[in-house]
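Morning. Coffee machine broken again, so started the prediction first thing and wrote up yesterday's gels while waiting. Chain of 328 residues, entered below exactly as on the submission form.
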Amino acid sequence: MKRARLSSSLLLALALGACGNPPSGDTPSDATYPTHPITIVVTFPPGGGTDLLARRLGASLQEQFGQPVVVENRPGASGNIGARIVAESPPDGYTLLMVNSSFAINPGVYRNLGFAPKRDFTAVINVAFVPSVFVVPTASPLRSLDDALAAARPDKPLPFASCGNGTPQHLAGEMLARATSASLQHVPYKGCGPALTDVVAGQVGMGVVTASSAAPLIAAGKLRALAVTSPQRSPLLPAVPTVAEQGVPDYALDQWHGLLAPAATPPAVVAKLNAAVARIVQRPDVQASLREQGFTPTISSPRAFQVMINADIDRYTALTDAIGLRAD
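Came back before lunch.
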């Protein structure tokens, strides 16, 4: 029986991407972690998708670890305030950062972050993706992505609403324009909700918003979905083709959500957090709940998540440089 249990533990560690460092380097504090409350800093206000995700994971981690897990909202400067707090926290696994893809966009938008995203954090786990979707009012003559691209002429650019300057939705529109040479004119809003209101009313010809925010309006017949930005079709909108499917090869922008820790957090602590969160995300009730909220659940190793973050920082910085997007 001991051998069977050891084999299962090893397979779980490999499947969930435990950091791969030998246990001989673990300190006693790593082995007993956690011994006191954990704080998850969220870089957005309460009630948003990232906040709700952090609270769901926090409650389950509290049950699993037997220690309080507190979610602390520290919004401001597009998430940079909360990120700076965690970057400067002790690297002991007791202060974590819950972020989405905006974390990878900000380095190209803000010159003075106050921290170095690649140097000052270590990835723990990616837990969910949220695709965005190109939508038009149901009364619009645009019935496909091809129609929209054909209508986006140099003499008459097609306006597109987004959830705000520097958001994944903004960059999704800019990526499409650069990949197709279509003339698209960005119209930023303070959130996906206001953007959707004006697209439904026909005030803006097209919108790029999160699939979760648009899905109820699409189901109600108030919006027509043209394309999702993810590399595969979204389970939330299975009938809507991807941008890549419609003739724009290699186009993909999926907004990820995950946990980071301060750099130099012990690998054994990162591995323990990774395994604990992965067990939570794999629970059928959690999977169902996340899908209802528009998330596509996933799990990753710390290394795979770090590689994805670094790659996104590089590609988003190149894009924001190309379009001249700066906030300071």
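The chain has a mean pLDDT of 90. Going to sketch it on the whiteboard this afternoon.
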